[in-house]
Queue: 2 jobs
Job 1
Amino acid sequence: MRPIDADEAKRFAAECWPNPVHRLAIDALLDNCPAIDPKDLQPHGHWIEHPTGGLVCSHCDRYKPDEWRSMCCPNCGARMEDKNDG
Ligand SMILES: [Zn+2]
């Protein structure tokens, strides 16, 4: 998946295909593409309690010695979801 600038794509298409029928079709196509929430591009994970204390990121397996459940992993940036340890 690659997020694009739909307005710029429309301008580019208008230059390449000046026929108004083609432009209407291209604009309709771009207008009907689903928008992407930038949060969906961020990896997801959850904290796993380490048996000797501290936490482990489920996404990158990085151990951190403290038990502060931050919203994101400081190593890989994964957004941490509420989930019981598993
Ligand atoms: Zn991580």
Job 2
Amino acid sequence: MSYPVTYHCPHCETIVALERDGYLADKAVTPYPFEGWRYADPTEPFEDDAADGVRFACGDSDGVVWAPDEDEADGSRPGCGEPFYLSFVRYENGQEVDPRAESEFVTIDPDPRPSGPGTPDGPDGSGGFW
Ligand SMILES: [Zn+2]
């Protein structure tokens, strides 16, 4: 048995309906691929470890239904054309693989201020307090 599961494009919120097997282990939908994940097109096999996720081209990918709830009467094509990625949960040695390991923690600086108050080489402090 498979049934449609819907996802939102992270760029434009267009809904896509993808036929999935009963077992769902989705991790995230992101505008970029996770490092180390293998992505398949929706028309390729991706269940049962055939891939680690699915790559969509918003509004363009075959094998899925775009904007299933929208009235097609106006003939406009849904989607923004940007790629986005559905990533499944991956396990390695029984541990869930975290795609955000390390790199994101080191690139995000919680305190970007280069110098706080009281830096030793501020403007010459000879004026003191009046
Ligand atoms: Zn889109």
